[in-house]
Amino acid sequence: MSQRFPPPSSDEADLITTQIDAAMEKALGTHDKSFNYKDANGAPTGPFAVLAYTPDLFPSYAVFATAIVSQNDFLPKERELAVLAVTAVHDVPYMRYAHTRMALGMGLTKEQVAMMVKGVQPKGLTEEENIIYATALELAETKTPVKEETWQRAEALLGKARCARLAQTVGLYLYTGSLLRLGAVSAPDN
Questions:
Q1: What pTM, to 2 d.p., does this model score?
Q2: Nearest by Cα to 187 from 91, 111, 105
């Protein structure tokens, strides 16, 4: 919930809530929906609390976010590795809440998730999963180009297209994290 961005007026809230519901259904489909994106009154939470104040920008955000979560060449588990790397660098409780649940649903263990949100490379990942997490972590941590060694390893294991997909995934969640940090959005109690 965000005290900084309380739910907009009922007419505006109805429109944005309808758009959010449609976007979440399209993005997540039958994926794990173990996190809440609306409060008990049906008002948007998470990044949607902030996005509700810019309904003209929400459709573009939704299109990009849906494209990222629907990538065929970048699996949902790989996306969650990238998101957990972002949460290791940026203190974003709502993102950590939602994506911890999603990562567990993708087969990661509680121990792996706990290590990743601390910025520690966990055991039990494949070589590709390790470079995805490491590259995402470096992208989230630094303001400079990734190290040549990281790039060489990522390109060799993932190829240029999947490296580009990884960077776009990290970018989406850095953007989403900015919204959450601006709104000081906390994680739900459940």
A1: 0.90
A2: 91
